[in-house]
Design goal:
Layout lengths: L1 H4 L4 H21 L3 H22 L12 H31 L13
Helix pairs in contact: 2-3, 3-4
Amino acid sequence: MSFLSEPIGLSHYLAVGAFLFVTGVVCMATKRNALGILMGIELVLNGAIVNFVGFASPYFRDENLGLDGHLIALFVIVLAAAEAAVALAIALNFYNNHATIDVDRADELKG
C-alpha cells in the first residue's frame, strides 16, 4: 500500500506506461479484427507517451526548459492521428470490397 501513498513520481508514470504498453501488445496479438488491432496500436503509442511525459519530469532537468518529452509526445499524438486516419480508410475500403474486416482475409490484397 506504500506505493499508492507516495507522491506521484517517475515510478508511477512508468507503471502506467508499462501497463498501457503491455495491454496494447496483448490486444494486437489476440485480436483478429482490424479495428481491435488499431486500438492495440493506439494503446502502445499512449504507453510511450506516458513514459515520455514521465521522463520530462523537473527532476531530470538541468538548465533547459524540459519540454523535450512533451514535444515528442505531441509529435506521437499527431503521428497516431495520421496513422488512424489512413488505417481507417484502408479498413473501410476493405469492408466495401469483402463485407468483413477480418485480417485473415487480407492476403487477397497481394498483387
